[in-house]
TrEMBL record:
GO terms for molecular function: heme binding; iron ion binding; monooxygenase activity; oxidoreductase activity, acting on paired donors, with incorporation or reduction of molecular oxygen. InterPro entries: Cyt_P450, Cyt_P450_B, Cyt_P450_CS, Cyt_P450_sf. Keywords: Heme, Iron, Metal-binding, Monooxygenase, Oxidoreductase. Pfam families: p450. This is Cytochrome P450. Belongs to the cytochrome P450 family.
């Protein structure tokens, strides 16, 4: 007779497209092994790597690809018609390229996305932060209960404005680009809406590229258009559009969640905030601990083993889609010890968080994200050191996605007296 418990454990986990209770789910999945079978929306079979050491190895494994030509179910015609996650596999650009093609694209983008260009944004990040904090204070003063949604008023417009300025995107496009990127990455979006959002996003970015061709400026889009390798190679139209889409989505969605998650954690851990405000640790340590403790990206699609690949005790079949679970890896007690579930800005560890990935596809925008979040948090708490949640943390609605990890709102009071 079979063991009912063992039968239950062997069942694939069905990922909730609304992103509910991600950390509790992660803890249960880590108990099952380093890699676990999943069911994605539409009934598509997949796997996730959920432990830190195995994920770090998997992300740079020679038998792991990102090109969708390795996606067995896609080429067998086994995916549901209009499957909303298809775009993550089939978009053509750095995120789905391997080997020499990936190196070519990364080299071209790196030549445009230089440290000098990132550092040049620092004064503008300060200026935008200061202006947004003034607006936050005004909104709180006008609200009868003094409550303001810090996510909507601060964590969203800051990185969105910065990334649009970096790309040379007119302010009139900003809000629409966020709405479209939300529909693209939210796994709770209806398939038809997700497809329409992707098409409109490409149309908008194509217009941005056309504007910059007609009137080049000192912006990343103009630099990407001009970027060439020594042999004269350059980004194709499709590659340029895919790169712009990647920069828009990753460049503001990630930091929106990072800033939101950091504030939420500090509100729930006043002792940790006190140590930062006392100067015992810097805001850069807050950013790094937030990236580990509550990664802004959770289950990111897709990679494909090019052979039947053993991860931990699990054999992942060749061509199966695999998601990297950065949130699960970030709280892995095998990597961070028995305190892995605790937010600790004084944490000393040699284990680097994987929030910006690892290996050949490590995020090019990580320095900008770290700089932006460090400045934003420091200036926010310098202005409002008593900031507190206006509702219990458990009542915050999750961001509707298993790709992004955050809350959908962040109601706060700027002068304390909140729900903590």
């Amino acid at each position: 007779m079979s063991d009912p418990q063992r039968c239950h454990v062997s069942l694939p986990h069905r990922l909730d497209p609304h992103g509910v209770d991600q950390h509790a789910v992660n803890a249960a999945l880590r108990e099952r092994g380093a890699a676990v079978p999943l069911v994605l929306p539409g009934g598509v079979s997949a796997y996730a790597v959920v432990r830190h050491a195995e994920l770090a190895e998997f992300l740079q494994g020679p038998a792991v690809a990102k090109d969708s030509r390795h996606f067995a179910a896609l080429h067998a015609g086994d995916l549901p018609a209009g499957w909303p996650l298809t775009a993550f596999a089939t978009v053509r650009g750095m995120t789905t390229a391997d080997g020499d093609e990936h190196r070519r694209l990364r080299t071209l983008v790196s030549r445009a996305f230089t440290p000098r260009r990132v550092e040049a944004l620092r004064p503008r990040v300060r200026e935008r932060t200061r202006a947004l904090l003034d607006q936050v204070a005004d909104a709180a003063a006008r609200a009868p209960d003094g409550v303001v949604d810090l996510r909507e008023r601060f964590a969203l417009p800051l990185p969105l404005g910065v990334i649009c300025e970096l790309l040379g995107v007119a302010p009139a496009y900003e809000r629409r680009l966020h709405e479209l990127s939300h529909d693209i990455v939210s796994t709770a979006t209806a398939p038809r809406r997700a497809r329409a959002a992707t098409e409109e996003m490409y149309a908008v970015l194509s217009q941005v590229a056309a504007d910059r061709r007609a009137d080049p400026g000192d912006d990343l889009t103009s630099a990407l258009i001009a970027a060439r390798e020594e042999d004269g190679d350059r980004l194709s139209e499709e590659e340029l559009a895919a790169t712009l889409l990647l920069v828009v989505i990753a460049g503001h969605e990630t930091n929106l969640h990072l800033i939101t998650n950091a504030v939420r954690a500090l509100c729930a851990h006043r002792d940790q905030l006190a140590r930062v405000l006392a100067g015992e640790v810097g805001w850069d340590a807050v950013v790094e601990e937030t990236l580990r403790y509550d990664s802004p990206v959770s289950y990111f699609p897709f990679r494909y083993p090019t052979i039947d690949l053993t991860v931990g005790d699990t054999v992942i079949p060749r061509g199966a889609p695999v998601l990297a679970s950065y949130t699960a890896a970030g709280r892995d007690p095998l990597a961070y010890g028995p305190s892995a579930d605790r937010f600790d800005v004084t944490r000393e560890t040699d284990v680097r968080n994987l929030a910006f990935s690892h290996g050949p596809h490590y995020c090019l925008g990580a320095p900008l994200a770290r700089m932006e979040a460090t400045l934003a948090l420091g200036m926010l708490y310098e202005r409002f050191p008593d900031l507190a949640l206006a509702v219990p943390e458990a009542g915050l609605p999750p961001h509707p996605s298993f790709i992004g990890n955050s809350t959908h709102t962040l109601p706060v009071r700027l002068t304390g007296g909140g729900a903590g």
